[in-house]
Amino acid sequence: MKVLMKYFTAVLAALVWPSIASSQTIDSGDTSWMLTSTALVLFMTLPGLALFYAGLVRRRNVLSVLMQCFAITCVMSVLWVVCGYSLAFGESTAGGLVGSLSLAGLSGISFDTPSNILPTIPSTVFVMFQMTFAIITPALIVGAFAERMRFSAMLLFTSLWMLIVYAPVAHWVWGGGWLAEMGFRDFAGGAVVHVTAGGAAIVAALVLGSRKGFPTTAMPPHNLAMTVTGACMLWVGWFGFNAGSAGAANGAAGMAMLVTQISAAVASLTWMSAEWIKFGKPSVLGIVTGMVAGLASITPASGFVGPMGAIAIGIAGGAGCFFATQFIKRSLKIDDSLDVFSVHGVGGMIGLLLLSIFSAVSWGGAGLGEGGMSGLFTIQIIGILATLGWCVVGSYVLLRVINIFLPLRVSAEEEEEGLDLVLHEESGYTL
User: Fold this and answer.
1) Each residue's pLDDT tens digit, 232-264
2) Is the pTM for the entire model greater than 0.85?
3) Is pLDDT above 50 for 181?
4) How many Cβ atoms sit within 10 Å of the Cβ of residue 105?
5) Which CATH number does 25-424 carry?
6) Per-domain residue ranges for the chain?
7) Phi, psi of 310 (to 5 degrees)
8) What are phi and psi of 98, to 5 degrees?
């Protein structure tokens, strides 16, 4: 009997021990924080970004923007599971350019499988957290071609763009790819999210052309209350975006949250002040756009800089994005409808560069690394140029090829009638 009991115990231990060993590496505190952060980042897209963008367009296009954000959320979720996650976080191939398809369909990921990137949380949570980034990045591009792109063409472009442009860049930076090997720093998506979205936005605006009447016809937002509501949701959700990128409930997450708040507030005040000086009055649209600029600028630096660095980045982000907006629309006359490149692209680049200064311990940062300020600055420049180059070329090729088979833009008559009725046979307002 004793021999049988020993045998039974040994067999039971052999069967149970692998799952026990794997679950022991998972920390409940880290997992709880990452679950919360994941919900916050999804909240940024739906309803945050959707409302922010919907209020900025004219009333005849409000539903089209809401529909685009909602549909992108659905499509990217499926594509991420099928192969997007594997391309971004699978084993490096082609010299660190892209992940393999070993994790396609989330192969090998079960209830208690620790993440291969963040072993203190389950893979399921990490997959879902990164999925929310893959959702919001193509959704940001919507602002560039608002009010004139066909819904079918938009779906095809954003789907291919996420797989061909976004996923490889995510691998370069966060999946162990070549930029990560160089020491490139991007804590929460300055390059992966904001530079890629901004680059695609400026290309899309140029390829599709301006809206009818731009720049001579005034095209004011139809519902600023809706935009401010969405902006407030973005601000709250951004804590999950930045602080969640620490991957754990620790001091880095706390500092990331603190500097996110500081930069957003400072950039809002900076944009408001610049607008007040230039135009004589501060606007609601200006202060909330400044907030987004500050959030975009602090995103890549949030885990590396301290409070004083956040103030400097907030000032630079608010001022830099304000003047970029004026230059793109007034001087170059490019109809990036909702200022995606000027705010997200420029903001992301500002943060990526300034973190090489304000990461210094003397500024309250986490340290500059072995190469010092000049070495890190050089690496950041390389990362920005590589990301922007890949994104611009990839986006241009995708748009041109898609346009051969499926017209990107609605007709002038359809644009005049509005995308809500033309594409969806619905109206946002019935009174």
Assistant:
1) 999 999 999 999 999 999 999 999 999 999 999
2) yes
3) yes
4) 12
5) 1.10.3430.10
6) 25-424
7) -65, -35
8) -160, 155
